[in-house]
Amino acid sequence: MAEQGAISVWRTRAIRGLAAARRAGHDSEAQHLLEELRELHVELGERNVGTRSEQTTYLLARGSRTPLPELLAVGVDTNLWPLPSSTSPSGTEPVPASPDTERRITDLFQASDPLDNRPPRGPRYVAEHRPQDNQRFHEQPLEWAIWDTRTNLPIAYHPDKELCEYQADLASVRFENSGLP
According to the model, what pLDDT value does residue 107 have? Predict the structure, then answer.
C-alpha cells in the first residue's frame, strides 16, 4: 500500500487488480485488494496518506454520500466503508469560559444597543424630487431621481414622478429579493 505522497497510481493499479481478480474468480486475492483499498481510504479520510487534493476529493465525496465512480465501476460502494473519525461528532465536553472572558462578553452585550431599538430599514431605493441637480435629457428637465438610501446618492433621473416611484419600488423589491446585504 502507498504510505506517503500521491496514492493515485497505487490506487489505480489496485482497482485494476481487483477487477482482474474478480473476473478470474480469485476471491481471496480480490478480498485482499478490497481490504487494502478500504484501509487506504480510511487513512485518506484521516489525512494520513495522499496529497491534499486526493484527501479533499475523497472527503467531499464521503460528505456528500457520493460513491467514488472508479470504485463503483468495479462494484464497490464507498458509502459502506467507515466514515473518517474526524467527521464523527466529538464526545468531549466543551471547556467552560473563564470568569474574565464571561465578564468581557457580558460587557460587550450590555454596551451594544438592543436589536429591537434599531430603526426599521426602509426601501433601498426611493423617488426624490431633485430639481436642484439640474439634470436634463434633450433639454427636457429630469427633476425626479431614484435615490439610493444606503449610499445617499442618485441612481437615475426621470421627468415623471409616477414612473420614478414605480422604478424605485421595483428596484427595491429586486434588491431585497437578491439577498445582498
Answer: 79
